[in-house]
Amino acid sequence: MMEIKTLSCVVRGPKDVGVMEQSINYDESSKEQTLVKITRGGICGSDLHYYQYGKVGNYEIKHPMILGHEVIGTVVKTNAPDLYVGQKVAINPSKPCLTCKYCLSGDTNQCETMRFFGSAMYNPHVDGGFTQYKVVDNSQCIDYPQDVSDDIMAFAEPLAVTIHAAKQAGDLAGKRVFVSGVGPIGCLAVAAIKASGAKEIVVSDLSRRCLDLALEMGATKALNAKDDFSEYMAHKGEFDVSFEASGHPSSIERCLAVTKARGTIIQIGMGGAIPEFPIMTLIAKEICLKGSFRFIEEFNTSVEWLSSGKVNPLPLLSATFPYTELEKALIIAGDKDNISKVQLSFE
């Protein structure tokens, strides 16, 4: 057994984060696990919630937990036949049980005992990937062309989320699509929807900066959320599919208004309860409302799309900080008026 010292980015509670030394063990004879040196990580909304509030939903921080699930790295030690020392890999943060009824049917994102990087769902918590060294399952290491930049490949996890969302809508070829809320996930959804063949992608947001980024990512038209949407509400709605990516009640109501009868709404954005949900609109227009959660094989698809240039996420990268400046990076990432995506460098 090999003991490794690693510096980790941990959260201890609201506005209480730091870099601390930890020890991890790696069995050098293991046929199932690989030791990886983390090189880059993207800060996600859940990381911000743990920093700002000490919890995500009802899952509170009980003890120091390593943040981060959008990570890539290089192989340090492995016995896997398809991996080699020095190889750059994208790391899938999902670790499903593979034995529950959902895993056995292929719906691993619905695993009953999923252990996902950087989650306080269990106690002890599941540590994330914002650390110098991490032991992962061989299957979590996804190889890609070694000349692809870290800036790009660190987007593999969030892009996978949006590819999964796009697939939830079925065939998008030739469809008219609306995306409400174009922060980083909304903008990546635009890219995934465009890559899936949609003929028109209209987006809405309150931020001019976000709208401009959405246009860069492939939107055909950008509207301020306060604009007049009456032309898209005619004939019981004009869009075949709407993607709601903000979680705000008014945004969900907008999607219901502009989606055509028997159209589809994909809910990506996470929010609280909606006390006066317009259920009669949903019923009368026979709209299909579907949730979209994480990803399954779309992680591998995301790596392929980023590797080939099918999606270019770089317009969304606002800043990169060394991991030792964790709190500064989190504060900057929380400035939604001016910042899109922030990454941490571990090199």
TrEMBL record:
<dbReference type="Pfam" id="PF00107">
    <property type="entry name" value="ADH_zinc_N"/>
</dbReference>
<keyword id="KW-0862">Zinc</keyword>
<feature type="domain" description="Alcohol dehydrogenase-like C-terminal">
    <location>
        <begin position="184"/>
        <end position="307"/>
    </location>
</feature>
<dbReference type="InterPro" id="IPR013154">
    <property type="entry name" value="ADH-like_N"/>
</dbReference>
<dbReference type="GO" id="GO:0016491">
    <property type="term" value="F:oxidoreductase activity"/>
</dbReference>
<feature type="domain" description="Alcohol dehydrogenase-like N-terminal">
    <location>
        <begin position="31"/>
        <end position="145"/>
    </location>
</feature>
<dbReference type="InterPro" id="IPR011032">
    <property type="entry name" value="GroES-like_sf"/>
</dbReference>
<keyword id="KW-0479">Metal-binding</keyword>
<protein>
    <submittedName>
        <fullName>Tdh protein</fullName>
    </submittedName>
</protein>
<dbReference type="GO" id="GO:0046872">
    <property type="term" value="F:metal ion binding"/>
</dbReference>
<dbReference type="InterPro" id="IPR036291">
    <property type="entry name" value="NAD(P)-bd_dom_sf"/>
</dbReference>
<keyword id="KW-0560">Oxidoreductase</keyword>
<dbReference type="Pfam" id="PF08240">
    <property type="entry name" value="ADH_N"/>
</dbReference>
<dbReference type="InterPro" id="IPR013149">
    <property type="entry name" value="ADH-like_C"/>
</dbReference>
<comment type="similarity">
    <text>Belongs to the zinc-containing alcohol dehydrogenase family.</text>
</comment>
